[in-house]
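Hi all, posting the design record for the shared folder.

TITLE: backbone redesign
STEP: 1 of 1
STRUCTURE INPUT:
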């Protein structure tokens, strides 16, 4: 698409509408944490292990240092399932992203999957009307299934409709909406708002609210021109869509670019997930895409959110929940910094700065934790390390993996690549969430040294293997990987994307 055109109102509306799905994803990620103790007591009553009158007598007020009674093992099991099943749903549905996106289109795909989000919101919102643990567990499973689809559909649609000059900034909005959703859930989940015995089902049920707004707005948004032309062969509709996104202009250049890509696709068999895994032509792109998603989850960012409240408590913060919300604010602010910088500094540069900075912060955090009780000022080191860690994450490693997959692959293998990257992200998210508590017990105050080790590996990998994609077309990016695969010098001629696609089809 012509990068010389300004952002139009239609393009802004389409991107805003799409990232409402990302807002919902972020809200669903964060909403379950704040009211944990409240929901556990309702689980106990539903399971018959906590008397009804205990719900009133055991209310927990934020800032109160009174220790709650020991939680029944069956409650712990159902609570753990409620948290973990969200990721499990995402793992399975991520494989369906390509099918949903291509079967009815990007817009209709997002419309259809909103049914899942609304159903999940109703299940959780009506939890008090049935068995609380079953209702929440079912709602979280369905919501996870929705978010697995949404986290693939949104970056795909935004990447396909974005002008090259704005592709990075608009792609980063996916992550911005996620962190906005997390922060929103943290604030609304405060005890004096909705995170209490009376309103916690409403708090969880609001997870489906963005889907209602998105459902109303999606019919106003044009379909992806690339989908219309390349997948559907509808040139006139693709031209209309281009003009709606960019205003009145000569669409011939964009149509010619899409025609060349379509011609190449016509000469290959469809690239399935299995075909992409076997393809030698796309192996390096896929390896880079998966490693970037691994770096996002194994950086330790989720562990920070799990551990930050405890660190703030040890540091003497009387109400650590507000300090944790402060982390959420930092999260939001530096994602906006990334939006402003990603098309100037570049993807590779910001990812390198972010990973290296996080590595140093993880080391500083370890030092702070180890000497927290020896030197009082180490609490300041720990708190500063947390804030800086989150800041570096949102500069690059947080937002960039989500949209760079769409930049690394052309139309043919893109849905399969996004599905594999999404599955990788959700699986590693599940692994960190499930096993971090056990690793924390094993390593104690040295737990973040493990993440520092991961981060150093990811930093080196990014430096040596990840190319810069800023301002490059799909064919130019493919040529970079082809050069590396062939080991040819920079000035040597490279095979075209067509040849790569042919070799992919033969794999």
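Okay, here is what came back for every position:
SEQUENCE:
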């Amino acid at each position: 698409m012509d990068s010389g055109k300004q952002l139009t109102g239609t393009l802004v509306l389409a991107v805003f509408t799409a990232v409402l799905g990302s807002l919902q994803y972020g809200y669903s990620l964060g909403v379950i944490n704040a009211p944990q103790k409240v929901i556990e007591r309702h689980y106990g009553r539903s399971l018959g292990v906590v008397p009804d009158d205990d719900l009133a007598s055991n209310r927990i007020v934020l800032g109160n240092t009174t220790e709650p009674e020991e939680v029944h093992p069956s409650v712990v099991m159902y609570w753990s399932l409620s948290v973990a099943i969200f990721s499990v749903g995402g793992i399975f549905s991520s494989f369906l992203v390509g099918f949903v996106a291509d079967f009815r289109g990007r817009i209709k795909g997002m419309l259809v999957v909103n049914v899942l989000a609304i159903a999940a919101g109703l299940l959780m919102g009506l939890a008090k009307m049935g068995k609380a643990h079953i209702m929440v567990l079912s709602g979280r499973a369905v919501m996870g299934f929705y978010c697995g689809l949404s986290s693939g559909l949104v970056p795909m649609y935004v990447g396909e409709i974005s002008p090259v000059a704005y592709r990075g900034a608009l792609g980063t909005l996916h992550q911005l909406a996620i962190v906005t959703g997390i922060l929103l859930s943290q604030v609304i989940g405060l005890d004096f708002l909705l995170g209490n015995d009376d309103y916690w089902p409403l708090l969880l049920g609001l997870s489906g609210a963005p889907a209602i707004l998105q459902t109303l707005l999606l019919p106003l948004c044009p379909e992806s021109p690339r989908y219309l032309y390349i997948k559907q062969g509808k040139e006139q509709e693709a031209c209309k869509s281009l003009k709606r996104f960019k205003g009145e202009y000569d669409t011939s250049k964009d149509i010619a670019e899409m025609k060349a890509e379509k011609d190449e696709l016509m000469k290959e068999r469809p690239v399935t997930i299995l075909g992409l895994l076997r393809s030698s032509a796309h192996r390096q792109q896929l390896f880079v895409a998966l490693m970037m998603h691994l770096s996002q989850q194994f950086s330790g960012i989720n562990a920070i959110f799990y551990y930050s409240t405890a660190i703030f408590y040890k540091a003497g913060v009387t109400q650590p929940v507000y300090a944790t919300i402060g982390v959420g604010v930092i999260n939001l602010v530096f994602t906006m910094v990334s939006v402003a910088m990603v098309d100037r500094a570049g993807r590779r540069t910001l990812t390198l700065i972010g990973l290296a900075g996080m590595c140093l912060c993880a080391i500083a955090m370890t030092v702070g934790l180890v000497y927290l009780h020896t030197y009082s000022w180490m609490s300041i080191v720990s708190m500063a390390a947390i804030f800086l860690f989150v800041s570096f994450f949102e500069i690059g490693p947080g937002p960039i993996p989500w949209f760079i997959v769409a930049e690394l692959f052309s139309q043919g293998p893109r849905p399969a690549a996004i599905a594999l990257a999404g599955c990788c992200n959700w699986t590693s998210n599940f692994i960190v969430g499930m096993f971090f508590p056990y690793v924390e017990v094993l390593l104690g105050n040295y737990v973040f040294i493990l993440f520092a080790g991961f981060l150093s590996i990811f930093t080196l990998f990014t430096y040596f293997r990840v190319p810069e994609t800023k301002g490059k077309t799909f064919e130019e990016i493919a040529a970079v990987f082809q050069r590396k695969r062939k080991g040819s010098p920079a000035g040597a001629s490279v095979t075209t994307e067509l040849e790569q696609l042919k070799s992919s089809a033969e794999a």
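COMMENT: The radius of gyration is 23 Å.
Let me know if anyone wants the other runs.
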